[in-house]
Write a structure and sequence with these properties.
- The protein is mainly alpha-helical.
- The chain has a domain of about 70 residues.
- The protein has seven helices and no strands.
- The longest helix has 11 residues.
- It is elongated, with a radius of gyration of 28 Å.
- The protein starts with a helix and ends with a helix.
Length: about 110
């Protein structure tokens, strides 16, 4: 089930414009920063503030639950560990020749 569908079932309607603006001011960021932190399309909050659109359903939970963005160490600690090699076999390292045979032959001819 998508996040938008889950939010529609849980909250039934979009958060009020004033509730969204209060949360943004509580965080102490601009609307553009808020959009960037949560992956909201650029200009969406401006349209919400003007009354031309609603906040997309997949982002309702951010305002209702007052989820604060993570910075620095907390953000990187949340990330998953890199995936290991699935086959378990290390990739063989390519061996390069230590010398060039043609170059060695030319050097021998010059001697």
């Amino acid at each position: 089930m998508s996040k938008a569908t889950l939010n529609r079932k849980t909250y039934l309607k979009a958060p009020e414009v004033q509730q969204t603006l209060d949360f943004i001011s509580e965080l102490g960021v601009t609307m553009a920063q808020f959009e960037r932190f949560y992956g909201i399309a650029v200009g969406t909050l401006r349209q919400v503030k003007c009354g031309n659109a609603e906040l997309p359903a997949k982002h309702w939970h951010i305002v209702y639950e007052k989820i604060k963005p993570m910075y620095g160490a907390a953000y990187y600690a949340r990330k998953k560990e890199p995936k290991a090699n699935k086959s378990g076999v290390a990739t063989p390292k390519q061996e390069f020749p230590h010398g060039n045979k043609l170059l060695d032959q030319l050097k021998d001819k010059l001697k």
